[in-house]
């Protein structure tokens, strides 16, 4: 039974987060490969140092700058690619009518407005509040009830 649950959860996660999983794996592999290439370059620079006149090549400092610039670019690329894909999926769901049904029902809530109230947009959930002459808190309502029914002193 546990294997079946694991399989179902894995399939659901893969279906919903496939692009994110792949992009993060590609990012991790890219960081690993850049690190290996940089290590090879440092070994080559060390070999050149031992064979030459004893001065460290200037490009060693630049290699660290380039390495970390590539890391930052990779992270930014992964982040913005995932953001773009998520926005695209959300737009497709909204166009297909598969967006958040609770939020949709709140936004499309049609109220009974009074005749004196201005015409409200169909998706204006606060139209009934704007149409009221004054807003009262729950404390105001309790005070009014107490004054109308003076059972308590």
List keywords for this structure.
2 domains; 73% helix; mainly alpha; 5 helices
Task: Outline the structure in words.
- The protein is mostly helical and 153 residues long.
- The chain has 2 domains: 2-99, no CATH class; 106-148, no CATH class.
- The chain is 73% helix and 0% strand.
- It is built from 5 helices and no strands.
- Helix 1 packs antiparallel against helix 2.
- The protein is elongated.
- The model has no long low-confidence stretch (mean pLDDT 81).
Count of the separate structural domains: 2
Radius of gyration: 32 Å
Task: Work out the helicity level.
Answer: over 70%
User: Overall mean pLDDT score?
Assistant: 81
Would you identify the regions where 5 or more consecutive residues have pLDDT less than 50?
none
Count of beta strands: 0
Order of helices and strands: HHHHH
User: Multimeric state of these chains?
Assistant: single chain
Structural class, judged by helices and strands?
Answer: mainly alpha
Q: Give the overall form.
A: elongated
For the largest beta-sheet, the strand count, sense and barrel status come to: none
Counting DSSP H or I runs of 4 or more residues, the number of helices is 5
> End-to-end distance, in Å?
66 Å
| Beta strand % | under 5%
């Amino acid at each position: 039974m546990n294997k079946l649950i694991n399989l179902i959860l894995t399939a659901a996660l893969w279906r919903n987060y496939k692009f994110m999983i792949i992009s993060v794996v590609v990012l991790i592999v890219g960081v690993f490969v850049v690190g290996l290439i940089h290590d090879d370059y440092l070994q080559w620079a060390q070999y050149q140092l031992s064979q030459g006149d004893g001065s460290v090549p200037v490009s060693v400092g630049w290699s660290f700058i380039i390495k970390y610039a590539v890391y930052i670019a990779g992270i930014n690329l992964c982040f913005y690619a995932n953001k773009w894909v998520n926005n695209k999926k959300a737009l497709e769901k909204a166009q297909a009518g598969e967006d958040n049904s609770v939020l949709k029902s709140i936004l499309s809530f049609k109220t009974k407005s009074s005749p004196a109230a201005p015409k409200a947009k169909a998706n204006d959930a606060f139209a009934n509040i704007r149409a009221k002459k004054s807003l009262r808190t729950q404390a105001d309502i309790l005070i009014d009830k107490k004054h109308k029914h003076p059972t308590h002193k």
